Structures are given as C-alpha cells and as structure tokens.
Amino acid sequence: MADEKDVKEVKPRAESGNGAKGNGAGLVKEIRDINAELVTKAKEQVEGLKDPTKTQVFTSIFRHKHDDTPRNRALGVLSNVFLHLHPAKINRDAVRYSYTWGMGGITFYLFIVLTFTGVLLMFYYHPSKVQAFRDVLYLEADVPFGKLLRNMHRWAAHLMVIAVWLHMFRVFLTGSYKKPREFNWTVGVILLVLTLLLSFTGYLLPDDQLGFWAVTVGTNMARATPLLGHEGPLGAQLHMTPYNDIRFGLLGGSIVDANALLRSYIWHCIGIPIVASIFMIVHFWRVRKDGGISGPAPVMLASEAEKQRRGVKAAGE
Amino acid sequence: MDWHQIWEIVSTPDNVPIVALIPLLAFYIYLGVKQARANDQLIAQLETDPALAKTHHRKTWPFRPGWQKEIHVWPFLLRVEFLAAIIVTIILMVWSITLNAPLEEPSNPNVTMNPAKAPWYFLGLQEMLVYFDPWIAGVVMPTLIIVGLIIIPYIDTNPLGAGYYTIKQRKFALATFGFGFLALWVAMILIGTFIRGPGWQWFWPGQTWDHSRLIYEVNRDLPDIFGITSNLGKGIFGAVVVGGYFAAGGLALTLLFRRFMAKDFRRMSILQYSMVAAFMLMMIALPIKMLFRLLFHIKYVWITPWFNI
Ligand code: HEM
Predict the structure, then answer these.
(1) The pTM is what?
(2) If exposure means fewest CB atoms within 10 Å of the residue's CB, which of A187, B127, B213, B234 is most exposed?
(3) Which residues of chain A have a CB within 8 Å of the CB of B59?
(4) Which of the four CATH numbers 3.30.1360.120, 3.40.50.620, 1.20.810.10, 3.40.50.720 does domain A92-204+256-289 have?
C-alpha cells in the first residue's frame, strides 16, 4: 500500500519536472526523491533476504515448505527428481543396515564415484599406443592430485566388484529373488556381468604389461569359442581364421594392439557405462514396482506355505 | 617358510582387494547367519504355538502396538544412505592415499609376464584352464554361470524364506549357492591369487616362487589307462564315461531328492527338475575333474577329433 502512494505522489512531479527543463531546483528535488525511494527499496530487499525461503528464486527451486511436518517430509522426497527414486515412506525395519547391508546402494554410489573420477581421467588420457602409457606417467607425476585420482578410480572399481558380489550374496540369502522379484534378479545378473566387463576393459587402458597380458590371456580364450573362434570346436569347419573370428572382432585385429586399445577405451568410457546405466534405471524402477525392498518380511511357516499354494491354484483355475 | 614371499603376494596392490574380501565375506556371513538363527528360532517357536503365530508380528525385532509400521524416508533412510556414502568415501580416500595403483613397464608383446594373471575376479576361470580346454573354461563356463544365475528364481520353487534370513527353510538352496559361490568361485580366486606362481604352477603358501622350477608332469588321458588307442574307441569310450556320469548321477540325484526333499520334488515341473539336476551335476563335475588331474594326472576323459573334455 505504501508503495502505491509513493508512486502516485512521485509521478505527477516527475512529469512537471520534465516539463520545466532547465529548472535546477526541480532536478535536485527529483534526485532527492529517487534517493529516498531507493533507500526504501533497499530496506525492503534486505528485509526480504532475512527469510530467503520466501524469495521467488527459492520457491521456484524448492516447491514446498520446509517446516517439519509429515507432509513436507514426504514432499521433500517426492518432489525431488533424484530422491523420488524412493517412496515417501518405507517399512520401518527395511532401513536397518543388517538386512540389506546397504550393498546395492553402495554399489550404485561407487558407480557414481567412478563416473566422476573417470571423466576427470579422460581429460588427461589419449587412447593411442604412443600416448596412453605416457599420459598415465604424466598424470601420476605432474597433474595435481593426479595420482590420487587414478588410485581412487582403480580402488573404487575393485570395491564395486566386491560390493556387487556381496549385494548378490545378500539378495540370495534373504530369498529376495523369489516371486515377484524374479525378473529383477535377472536384471541384476546382467549388471553383475557389465560391472565385471567395465573393470576388465579398463584394465588395458594404462597400456602397461599388467593390462596387456591380462587382456591377452583373457581374449585368447575367445579364440576357442565354439563355432565362432578359429581354434574352437567346429570353428575351422566354419572357415574361421585369426582374421575373421570373434576375437578379431573384439580386438579389432589379430593381436592386442592400437585398435584393441581404442575399442577397449570406447567400451569402457562410453558403451558399457551407457548400457549399465540403462539397466540400473530398470533395476531401481523394478525394485519400486515389485513392491519395494523384499523385507525384512514376517516369517512364514511351512504349514502356511502349503495352504497359500493351494489357495493360489484354486483362484487360478 | 618364506615369509617374504607371502608378504610379497599379499601386499601386491592388486591383491589387496582379495585380502580385504576375506574378512568382509566372513563378517557378512556372520551377520547373515546370526539373523537366520534368530529367525529359525522364532519359526520353531511359532510352529509349536499356533495361538502365538496368529498374533505375533513375526519378526525378531521389537514392535509395539502403538508404533507405525512405516516411517519416512526423509530422514530415516536418507540419513543411512548419507552416512554410508561418507564412510565409503573415507575408506576410499584413505586407501587411495596409502596405496598406489600398480603401473608396470610399458606393454611389450615380446616380454611375457610370468605368471600372466587375469584380473583377480577372473582368476577362477583362469584356474579352470588347468583342468579344461579354453573353449570350456573361457566360453562355456562363463555362459553356464550366467545362465545358471539367471534361472535361479525360476527353478527355486520353495515359497518359504522370501524376504528374511533363514537356514532351516532353505537348506538345499543355501548349500548349492554356497558351494557355487564360496567353493567354486571365491576359493578358486584365492588359489589363483595366492597359490599359483610362475608357469601357473602350484606353490604352497610360504614356498618360494622359483622361476626356473620345472615340473615334468606326465599327464595321461583316461582312455590310455584302459589301453584304448584307436580314435574311434577313444571317442566312444569318452561318450560312455561322460554319458554314464550324467545318467548315473542323475539317477542318484533323483533318488536322493525324492527321499530327502519330497516336497520340493513334487512342486517342481519336469523342466525345473531337469535344470536343477543338470546344473548340479555340472557343478559337481568340476571338483571331480580337478581331483582327477591333481591326484591321478589325468588330462582328458573324452577325446574326439573336434573337442576334448
Ligand atoms: C551394478 C550393480 C547393481 C546395483 C547398482 C544394484 C542396486 C540395487 C539397489 C540399490 C537395491 C535396493 C536394495 C539394496 O540396496 O540391497 C537393489 C535391490 C535388488 N538387487 Fe541389485 N544392484 C546391482 C546388481 C545386482 C545383482 C548382481 C543382483 C543379483 C544377481 C541384483 C538383484 C537385486 C534384487 C533381486 C533386488 C531386490 C532386493 C530386495 O527386494 O530385497 N542386483 N539393487
């Protein structure tokens, strides 16, 4: 209200000021008015900043209030694109660490760490025979925190393999693959394979003896693929040679060389991460759609299992 | 006892994850078994007391009637996740500051690494190369492992034990998975890491890795022992032995199954049961073939012009 009055008062005077050009006293008055006006506006601004949650910027980002009400706790999760992976509420025992061991979440967190450190590593790495090994030396010796970066990427990869195994082990021990989660177990197995492949393709990239021989040993087995490898059963009968078999396709050549390095790099940095991300999206989606985490569920007695089965059958018939 | 050799193997940076895996696995097995025990106790109690079974909330954790069954994700789950992320980050940081990732000489196709080892998580498959031809160890086995894992939910027809730890209600499933995961996968990795030295030879812990050690192992094939020399004879003999193993093994397995797990047997369709039997027999065949090789120096059982098993 105060604002409106001010505007009304100011306006006519401003017009008269314009009309009387060259009138020095009028101009001084006008500047004084502007000054007073700006001071009030500045005061209002400061006043507004005392509660930033009321600013337009804030309310445009966070779409709900933050006082601690059940509604806001739920909205905090639901209206956030990252958090809404979660439901608003879950079973009170499901948050106990001893049930899930948190291993699925830790695996995912390590994947994020690996993506982050991996992108940073990519800034310093050229996937070519001439440069790859030197890039790693340079990274370790000259790039600030380069050694730490490489170490973190390496050890996070190992940890992720361990975490994914433990996660699978937990899912098995709790029987969480049983109805209705059969399919998510399948998605999980694919994620396990992708995790191992990610690790394996990364092994070659430093282009050192360790990676070179590990990949040589690994891909030599592909020679022996039945039907598709030139040393495999029935391979020769299908006209497989070292220059057209499946190993050639994997390495982009008949030996582990520049093409293999490039292929490894592309699978490692682009191909498999994208595929793995897609499967992870499906995996998390299915955890929700299959009714959330499987438990800890109330224990079932053998006598009830029989009854339930018969009940289901009767309903199905 | 060559402690230095042991230290060298254990402290190789890329072996540290395996060294870490052992206590981790031990801890989580303990955690699982502890909860399974508690649940099994509760199950036994409820089975003898039907009245209690009707009213009990059926978990080993406390629950009071006034409590809500569900709690808010914010903050109760998110704080656990946040804490886990911080702890993992700290572990990773400390590990990365104290231990450097390995970097060997630049790759050189003319200088072979000895032993040339695959990354540790594939060492189980590399170990299998000793006992099987590459097409089995490197191609067929990984495929079977993946397929075998995928079909688990479809062949395990036991409705009990979904969503809680238990031993009593899932003895067979746990034993099978434990055998596959711990004995065939983790144990092979440990052998590949700690036992296999230069030339992929067997060195007991504490034995020095002798790069010039040569072992003249005379490996025979099973048909040779029986004096079969013709190719046709070898082929037929092998087919009979392998076929016989699966036939006899299948029969024995079915008899055992019907006797000791009658309920499960009744529940399974013929497809489900044959899958279980086939995968069981293949899993059991691995240690048998390993023992043949390690104790009797027998290389192949079945020899044909196209493949050897
Ligand atoms: C990149 C690898 C993987 C990631 C990031 C991942 C992530 C997750 C997460 C976050 C959960 C929620 C519960 C928990 O944390 O335990 C979960 C549940 C589940 N995962 Fe995975 N997982 C992966 C691999 C696997 C594998 C290898 C399997 C099995 C072979 C699997 C099977 C399942 C199943 C069946 C559930 C539902 C469990 C339940 O309801 O209790 N996942 N996964």
Answers:
(1) 0.88
(2) B213
(3) 93, 296, 298-299
(4) 1.20.810.10
